Each structure stands twice: as structure tokens, then as C-alpha cells.
Predict the structure.
Amino acid sequence: MRISKIFFFFLLGLVLFFSHNIIVLAETSVEELGNKFGYYDGLLEGYRYIDVDQAPNPRDLLDIQDIEEKYEYYLKDHSTAYRASFISAYYTGFQEGYNEIINTGSNPDDNDIDYVNKYTHYADILGLLMGEIYGFRDYYLNNNANPDKAIPSSDTINKIFKLNRLNSNDRHLFMNTFKSKFKEGYEGGYAKASFEPMRTSLDEGLYHGEYFGKILGGAHGARDYLEGKTRNYKRDIPSDQNIIKDFYLNDDGNEYRQGFLIGFRRAYEESYNENYRTMNVEIHRGAFERGYEHGKISGKVKGELKAYEDFHLQLENDWSKHYPSQGSLLKEYGLNSESIRYREGFFSGFLAGLAEGYGNKYQELREKTLNIKTKLEELPLFGGEVNSLDGGLLLRVDKGTFYNPIVITIDTLPDGYFPLEKDYIKASNFYKINIINKSNEVDKKKDIELRFEYYGKDNGGVYKLSNGQWIYLPSYVGDGYIKTYVKPNSLKKEKNVFAVFIDKNYNVIHDIRKHWAKEEIIAFQRRGLVSGYTDNSFKPEKEISRYEFLSLLSRVYQWEIEGENSDIKFSHLLKYAKEKAYIETWEDDLSKASAGISYREVESIMRKILEDDNFHWYNVSAKILYEKNHRSKYYNSPDNFITRSEAVYMLYILNEWRY
């Protein structure tokens, strides 16, 4: 029947349009919006010609002026280009909707009595649906709700539904019913459009809450069963307050929050019970099969872990070297209480999972390394600059630093490629730098600048990875960058990995801001080798005590002494130094711990530590005078006491070659 088809297309249009598109109508592009309005206007216009032998061309039914007048409230205040895009899309949509009705229509039999009766009875349905469409449209055109203004005229209704086929009584009944239901549908559609965002927020909250509730409930259900607890989903279900806190729901609207809580609790209970009972069912399956399945899961996890270790340690790709004994698996996974068949299955599955997990993960890591972005560039004798491919690092070489052209490679490494200490915030990519210098000769007085993009505070710094630890390098923060300087020879090694970190625990020492050894003191402070006093001072010109000097040596040279750095006693340090023959003249008088130490004594101790009889404090003092413009008290007498800043500076320049 024709009216059945009309009803079908009305209903289909509503489902497609209002279920999926009406909520975002205000945010769609002008082309999408024009197409939508045109499509549904085309549907309505198609009803007028559904039974005409030769329906007019849809473009002959359109007039630009009519379209602009109909949607003037939406098109006003927009540019000419905007209006043109809207109308062009409207034309396309109109033709689609119009043709959809015309191409599927048919003519009923005029003598079909059942058709005439149903035609009248459809008035309430058609009125509701058309009213709802117009109500939605007026809301999203920012028109005030006015069903009397929106309702089509009697002539229009008569033409749309061909009411001249009915007798006057039926036509009158249809018209009154249609108009009454149109107003009802209009008001419902307008109200629905008004509250649709609220319903959408509630639906989204339900969906998201169910997602997380299902995960947590399932985990708790399985856990409780395995721990031998009774089935009780209320045991550990989070309170509303904790759910709101854990998922930051106070930052969202009330409808979303309420929907989330309802969905979370509902899904939690369902998933908890399902997983608890599933575990109960699983326990009755074949022991070997269950053992194999569980063993494979555990083996896969173990295989992936071992692949990570071997890959980053650059060990051979061979899972079999991690082949476990049955005894070790029994102990590690607590299998002694399981049946023999279960244990046999677990061991077989573990080996299969170990091989699979290891092989897949190692291959995955290998493929990632192939995608690492590498910049390779040759620099001439007069130097130049090389940027990493991501633009986050600039390397600058001064002319004369090298005596022949060099090749520089900068690898930009992915996140998670290297370990990160918990007190650091990563503020750049990892960069691996290598310089190929065929002569191996450089001007040792020159430095290479490494400049990183950076917009943070002064607690940021450039770090270099050395023996698995991130070592701070003296850094200088500028406008949009942070930089450091390294020696050319330090970059000829294979592993030169740098990154910028923010030290969350860094405290500024206030009395070294203009001190000649400021950079060296800060470097040792940020490497954890020295610390200031409780008042955030360092007292750089204070004489360093014997205890302080030995403590500093133990940290710099990593003496193996029992106890934490802050707890090592002077007696332990003195004993260690004497056993190593670093000190021979000091008596075992612990009361001398706070006594000063002379330049002469420092010189003697350092010769033994360095195993270099050519070490002279004079060379250090000359470097201080020449580079820092500071005169050491050594020049007055080598028996004067060395200061805290001089001790730090000496150990800094003696050990910086490592980095």
C-alpha cells in the first residue's frame, strides 16, 4: 500500500536522522547541514508525486529564493560563500530524498475499501511523525516553538496525502486528526531536541561506566574465586564517592556522572558473577587442558619479559636459553597442590607460550628499531649545525674542532626505550649521537654544543646515560631552549644517549649564584654527590673537613662501604682509606673528623687514588686561576686548608672525561 510506504519512509528517516545525526547538527559542516535539510524536505515533497505517472524533475521544484527564505534564520549573518555551500548541498540532499520516495512508490486501487479506511487511520501516525520532524527542525534552526506557524496549510496537507480521494467526512476527520497529532508531535520533537544532549550524556555515562565496571567486576570475581572466597559482589565494589574520585567524574556533568555510576554498578555485578561462575566451571574441565592453557598464558608473559631483557642487553635471539626446569615452575607458580596431569599440562603450555611470547616480542622490538628516525650528515672542516629529524635537538660544531670532515648521526629513539628514574620528568625525546672521525684527532680545548628545545623552569637539565644511570651535565636554560657542552672525544663512543629531564626534587642553593664554582657544585648536587645545608646554603668557601672529604671521595669513586651514604661513619671511611693505602699519616683519632685537610694532604691522597705520581694540586689551582679568575690559598701555602668548592671542582675536572 502507498500509505504503508509513506509511513515506512517517515519512520526510516526519523531513525536515521534523529538517532545518529540530530545531536551534532549544530556542529556539522555547512555542506552536511544543507544536505540533511534538503534530504528530508525532498522526502516530504516526494509524497506529493508518489502516484503521478510522470513526476517532475526535483530541480524544477526548487527555487533558491524559497530555500533562503525558509532557512533565513540559519543563513543570516553568514558569508556569501557559506550560503552558496549550504544551498548546493541542499540541492543534492533534496534530490536524494525526493528520488528515494518516487522510485519506491506505487498507485493504489481506487476501489480498495481497506485502503480508504487505513488512509484515515494513518492520520494520527503521520501527524505525529511530521510534527516531530518540524519540531526538531525549528529547534535546531533556533526558532521559537510555534506549532501553529509550523503546521502545513490545509491545502498543502490535502495535496501531500491526496485527500480528494476521500469523502468529505473522512477528509474532515483526517484533517482534524492530522493537525491535532501534528501539534502533539511538534511539541514532543521540540522538547526531545531540547533534552537530547542530556539523554546523550546519560547514555554515554552508562556506556563508559559499564565498560570499566565490567573490567573491575570481572577481575574481582575471578580473584575471589581463586582465593576461595564466597561469591559476593558487594565485598569490594567501590563506593560512589571512590568511583567519582578515581574517574574524575566531578569534572563532568551530572547526567554523565549519574549514568556512569549506574552503568558501573550494573556491569560490575554482572561481570563479577559471570567471572566467578566461569572460574567455577573452568575448574571442572580436564586438568591437563586447563594446565596447558594456564601455562601457555604464563609462559607467554615470561617470554615477552625475557625478550625485553635480551633485546635491550643486545643478547642473542634465543628463547631456549630461558628453558625452565619443572622444579622451578612448581615453586614459582605454586603448583605443588595441583594434580599431576595439571602440572604436566602447565609445563607443556608454559614452554609453548614461552617460545611464542619471546619470539613475537623480540621480533616486534627488532621492527621498532628499524623505524627509528636517523639523521646522518657530513660536516666540513669549518663546522656547522645538524638538527635531529624531529627538530628537538641541534648539534653545533665550531670550525677547527676537527681536522678533517666528520660524519654525524643522530638517532631519535622512542619513549620507553631507556629506564627513567621516578624523580625525573622526561622533557625531550631520547637522542643517540655518534661522530665518525677518521683521524681520531680533535682540538681538546673546544666543546660541542647540544641545544634542546625546552620551555620549562631551571630545574630542567640535560642528562647523559652512563652505565645505566642518567648523569646530569651542566646546563643553561634560555628562551625556548636548554643547552650543554660536551667534549668532542666523548661522542666517538657508540653509546651517547642524551635527554632533557626535570628534577622534581631539585633545590636551589642560594649562596653559590655568583660563585666561581657554581656550575661544578650544581652538577655534583644534581648527581647526588653533594648536598647543601638545611638552610639551602652550601658554604663554598668553608674549609672541607676530613669526614666530608672522605665521604665525597666514597661517592665519586663508589667505595664499597656498608651503610647508606648519609649513614656512613667517619671510622668506616678512615678504615677503608687506610686499607687501600690512600692515607698513611692520619692517626685513628675520630675526634679529628671535623678537622680541615690541607692541599698537601689532598695531593698525596689523590696521587694514590689516581695511581698517578704526576698529579699536582698546582695544576688544579692554575686551572682555577686561568679559567675561573680565582686565586687559591694554595699559593700562600700548600699547608692551607682546601675549601668545599675547591674539592668539588677538583673531583669534577678529574672525572668529567667519563661523560
DSSP finds 20 helices and twelve strands in the chain. Residues 2-199 form one domain. The chain has four domains: 2-199, 287-370, 373-506, 522-658.
